Amino acid sequence: xxxxxxxxxxxxxxxxxxxxxxxxxxxxxxxxxxxxxxxxxxxxxxxxxxxxxxxxxxxxxxxxxxxxxxxxxxxxxxxxxxxxxxxxxxxxxxxxxxxxxxxxxxxxxxxxxxxxxxxxxxxxxxxxxxxxxxxxxxxxxxxxxxxxxxxxxxxxxxxxxxxxxxxxxxxxxxxxxxxxxx
Length: 182
Known about the structure:
Number of strands: 0
Order of helices and strands: HHHHH
Low-confidence stretches: 8-32
Oligomer: single chain
Shape: elongated
Helix content: 55-70%
Strand content: under 5%
Distance between the termini: 32 Å
């Protein structure tokens, strides 16, 4: 069936027929060693699946937080460090700069795109640093992963979100410093 995932995999397995990777090594054919283009639909499928998985993960964490909070009497609300408010502003600012980068690229302004893209990357790093500062502040206040269920959820949520943002920073750095060809 044309357009199925099986066809896409087949096309990628046979590079001369529309996508995938060229054979490795010197085949003696004098061919071009660049990668063949992968269809945009394949990228969109992977992005959609990744976003779905991330969404399900955070929804599962949120659901377990709500259920656990309603159980037992050992739940003690956590006094959150003020740095988390700064982190919220940093996260919102990074969304704005990413949108500005996208608009600059759509207008063909590559230098503006790169500047906004790098600013977004820097803001992501500031966010991760802010998460670490919040952890240090809680540690200094005697709040640890095993202190109570509330602190456990806080550490799990912030660790998952920090890793998520760190993955985004790595992706942003890859895009910023890759070699672009027309």
